[in-house]
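can u do me a favor
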């Protein structure tokens, strides 16, 4: 790939592409003794990497206003992970709850540094994993959870909980029970504030999710509570995996038309995909329409479709000092005189 072509890729894609290029040529060199002057010559290699990084650093980062960027997604995940692993203290959460309960006696406003961040770590992960909208999250009831089977029931769907969410929700249920006992309240909704009430605010006589607190951790990290950006990102991933659009719409709380519009607008790197498809087709790579099946490569000598794994291919050449060709293991290039 020429350096001039690199500018047409996103910054995040470029970094991955550079890593891939170096790994690919290392593999060719080690397994097949195929050398590339740029990667063999240390000076050329150094100049190549330096020049590539220089171009990448000067590119203007473009971020969609309707879907979270790779950088936002990574920053949010790292921020939540740092909080949960380095800063979270269950003991401090209980101390905050107790101080809040006694606020009428100490006449002092209580700030929740831990409780809301802990709860919002869970709710944010539910957005990242299932693309749930804010109203759905505030409406979840405690009986939606089945921690024994590690699932959460949402709109008729049994959604699998990973080990981290299961652990976090188990801890949260203990804290939730403690809050309700202190406040002498009974509450059906799953997520509650320290006073035992749902994460709901009232504005113009209308109830709406209290997103500032419900997604406090996101506000800390990204300085906004734009959960729809991350829900949109997850919706696209689900659609790209072939999940039925009506199912995605139902789960995410969006209309089918909205999902179609989102897919049309932001899976329309379709132009890039088509371009890549035809380029790969020219070189023998066929992309299967069924995402569940692996792509295949067409052998240029016998025309057979073969899995693109090293065990299925060999390098052959037609004369001792001639160019090396890739052929399937079955035909071995048919007339290839030498097999490497």
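np, heres the sequence
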């Amino acid at each position: 790939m020429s350096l001039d072509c690199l500018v047409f890729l996103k910054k995040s894609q470029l970094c991955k592409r550079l890593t891939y290029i170096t790994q690919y040529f290392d593999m060719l060199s080690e397994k097949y003794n195929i050398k590339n002057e740029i990667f063999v010559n240390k000076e050329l290699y150094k100049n190549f990497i330096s020049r590539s990084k220089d171009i990448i650093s000067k590119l203007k980062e473009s971020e969609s206003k309707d879907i979270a960027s790779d950088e936002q997604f990574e920053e949010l995940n790292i921020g939540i992970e740092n909080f949960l692993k380095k800063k979270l203290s269950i003991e401090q959460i209980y101390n905050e709850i107790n101080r809040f309960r006694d606020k009428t006696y100490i006449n002092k406003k209580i700030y929740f540094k831990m409780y809301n961040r802990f709860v919002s770590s869970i709710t944010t992960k539910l957005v990242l994993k299932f693309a749930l909208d804010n109203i759905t999250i505030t409406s979840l009831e405690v009986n939606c959870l089945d921690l024994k089977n590690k699932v959460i029931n949402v709109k008729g769907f049994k959604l699998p909980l990973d080990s981290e969410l299961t652990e976090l929700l188990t801890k949260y249920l203990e804290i939730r029970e403690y809050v309700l006992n202190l406040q002498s309240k009974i509450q059906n909704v799953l997520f509650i504030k320290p006073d035992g009430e749902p994460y709901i605010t009232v504005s113009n006589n209308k109830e709406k999710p209290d997103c500032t607190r419900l997604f406090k951790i996101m506000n800390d990290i990204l300085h906004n509570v734009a959960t729809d950006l991350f829900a949109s990102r997850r919706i696209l991933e689900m659609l790209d995996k072939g999940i039925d659009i009506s199912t995605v719409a139902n789960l995410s709380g969006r209309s089918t038309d909205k999902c179609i519009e989102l897919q049309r607008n932001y899976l329309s790197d379709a132009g890039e995909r088509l371009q890549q498809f035809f380029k790969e087709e020219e070189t023998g790579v066929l992309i299967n329409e069924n995402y569940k099946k692996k792509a295949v490569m067409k052998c240029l000598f016998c025309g057979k479709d073969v899995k693109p794994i090293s065990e299925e291919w060999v390098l052959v050449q037609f004369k001792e000092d001639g160019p090396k060709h890739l052929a399937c293991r079955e035909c071995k290039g048919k007339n290839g005189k030498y097999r490497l």
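Confidence is low (pLDDT under 50) at residues 1-9, 285-294. hope that helps!!
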